[in-house]
Specification:
Blueprint (H helix, E strand, L loop, with lengths): L6 E7 L7 H12 L3 E7 L5 H10 L4 E4 L13 E2 L1 H6 L4 E5 L2 E5 L2 H13 L7 E5 L3 H12 L4 E5 L3 H11 L7 E5 L3 H8 L4 E4 L24 E3 L8 H8 L4 E2 L2 H16 L7 H9 L10 H9 L1
Parallel strand pairs: 1-2, 1-3, 4-6, 7-8, 7-10, 8-9, 10-11, 11-12
Antiparallel strand pairs: 3-5, 5-6
Helix pairs in contact: 1-9, 1-10, 4-5, 4-9, 9-10
């Protein structure tokens, strides 16, 4: 680790103003005594190549990526971790003396939030995923690696869901796949036997919502994960709760993937629960570190 000067980590995305990553990463860096700072940069999709070149030129220690950059960044990196290569999307870059390695810590994030926030074990279960983009790809790998019995992929364009299935099915022969549209009738039929529902679309990121979603078709026991995160409860999570389902947004997943990224960059694990506590505080919820409340408040206010 370079201790001669302050190292820099960044998150790239477009939009990026809503990102809570700087809040939790800077708190973790300060707590761990790491001489580094984490900031946010708006990077339009067409400028990702120039942004990666800047990472090399300026010796940026590491980078997180969010929409719409996770997939388009791959050709500009020197190496992809096997999971990132399988997913075809990167959310974390580690700079090893100019050699840029891409990882996807969203896989860990999905598994961790299902466990901690929903108490859900995917083994032998049937799951419906909404969306066929980068977030969906990470969820597919996480669920299949955990032994999910079947995965339904629902997308506005069914052909894209079918293409995704054709890509992943050979890698996970023990999981059954099927595709459907987002129409109320088609999706409703797919939801009837689901044990878990995941929203991996961008619906809700800008305050929009699904219209005529077939909630009555989803079994009462099925929990709901909305990968979209916000300091406010998303419309999808709120709707799920109104229909009697245990539901959580993507803040837990954000914290978990951030913890794994932090460890990849620094070689040390952040203090347990610290990132989640920062995100809870941003939502106005109690922190998970009551004995260190004053320190945490100072980190968040700085």
């Amino acid at each position: 680790m370079n201790r001669t000067g302050t190292r820099v980590m960044l998150v790239f995305g477009d939009p990026i103003a809503h990102s809570l990553s700087p809040l939790m990463q800077n708190a973790a860096l300060q707590k761990a005594g790491v001489n580094a700072v984490y900031g946010a940069c708006r990077v339009p999709k067409e400028q990702i190549g120039a942004a990666v070149a800047a990472v090399r030129l300026l010796n940026v220690w590491g980078v997180n990526l969010t929409v719409p950059l996770k997939e388009v960044v791959c050709p500009f990196l020197d190496e992809l971790d096997p999971a990132a290569q399988l997913i075809g999307a990167v959310n974390t870059i580690v700079n090893r003396d100019g050699h840029l390695v891409g990882y996807n810590t969203d896989v860990y994030g999905v598994r961790r939030t299902l466990d901690l926030d929903l108490g859900f074990d995917p083994a032998g279960k049937r799951v419906m995923i909404l969306g066929a983009g980068g977030a969906s790809r990470a969820a597919i790998v996480a669920l299949c690696q955990a032994g999910a019995a079947s995965l339904g992929i629902a997308n506005r364009t069914v052909a894209r869901a079918e293409t995704l299935i054709a890509e992943f099915a050979p890698a996970f022969p023990k999981t059954a796949f099927h595709a459907c549209s987002l129409s109320s009738l088609d999706l409703g039929n797919g939801l009837k036997k689901a044990d878990l529902l995941i929203n991996a679309t961008s619906v809700g990121l800008k305050g929009d919502r699904f219209v005529d979603f077939p909630w009555p078709a989803l079994p009462d026991h099925a929990p709901v994960l909305d990968i979209v995160y916000s300091t406010e409860e998303t419309s999808f999570v709120a709707a799920a709760k109104r229909h009697g389902h245990m539901a959580t947004g993507g803040l837990g997943m954000l914290a978990a993937q951030g913890e794994k990224a932090f460890e990849l960059w620094t070689g040390i694990a952040p203090q347990e629960w610290l990132m989640r506590s920062c995100l809870n505080a941003a939502q106005g919820k109690p922190t998970l570190l009551p004995m260190e409340g004053n320190l945490l408040a100072g980190m968040i206010g700085s």
